[in-house]
Description:
By secondary structure, this protein is an alpha/beta fold. It has ten helices and eleven strands. The protein has a seven-stranded mixed β-sheet with strand order 5-4-1-6-10-7-11, sandwiched between helices. The protein has a two-stranded antiparallel ribbon with strand order 2-3.
Amino acid sequence: MKILGIIPARYGSTRFEGKPLALINSKMMIQRVYEQAKKADRLSEVVVATDDERIYKAVESFGGKAVMTSANHKSGTDRCCEVVEKIGEGFDAVINIQGDEPYINPLQINQIAELISDMDTPLASLCKPIKDYDELVSHNAVKVVFDVNGKALYFSRYAIPFMRNVEDDKIWLEKRAFYKHIGIYAYKCDVLKKVAALPQSGLELAESLEQLRWLENGYTVRMGVTEFESYSVDVPEDIIKIETIFKS
C-alpha cells in the first residue's frame, strides 16, 4: 500500500506565531518533524502542507518537499485533503502527522500505517495508557474509549468512562485503564475526501474535537495502543521542556 505522510504547518497561531520555524535544539521544528517522519519506512513519501511562503522556503532549504495550500482551512484534515487533490494520485492512504511534535517516534507512524493498511479500516488513530492523575482530569488531554476490536466509541475532554461507584477520582487509575488520544490520524484517500466534506457536527462543536464528526456520521476509527509518549509544542515555554528531555 502506498501511504503519503502529510505534515500540516501553518504560520499563524494565537498562542505561538511562526511555530514551525522555531528552533528546537538548533533545528527548525518543522525540519525535526520532517526528518522523524522520513525515518518511518512504511511511508512512501512525506510532504509539508503549508499556507505560508516562509515555511515553504524553509522546507526547501533543508531538502524537504512542501505543497502550498489555502489559508482558509479550519483543520489539518482539510489541508491534507487539498494536498491529496493536488498530488495524491497513486496513493492509497494518508497519515496526518502533527507539525508541532518535533520528536515524534517513527515507530508510531509505522504503527498507524499498519492499521490503515487493513482493507476494512477507513480511519485510524493512536492512544496511550494514562498513568498520571493530572493528565486524567486535564481538559487538554483528550480521552478515548474503544470496543474489544479497537474501534473508537467516543472521544472526550473529560475522563471516560465515569466511575460511578468510585467516588474518589484520584484512585480511578487503580481500578481500570484509561487512554489518552494521540493526535495522529490516518485515512484511506477516498474516505479523507468524504470526511473533509462533512459539515461540523453537534458533538464536534460541543467538545471541540473534529474526530467526533466522523463518529457521529457513522465512520469507524480504528485505535492502536502505543506506549510512546508524544511531546508537542503549544506555547514558547514548551520548547525549553522538550529541549531538556531530548538534549542528547
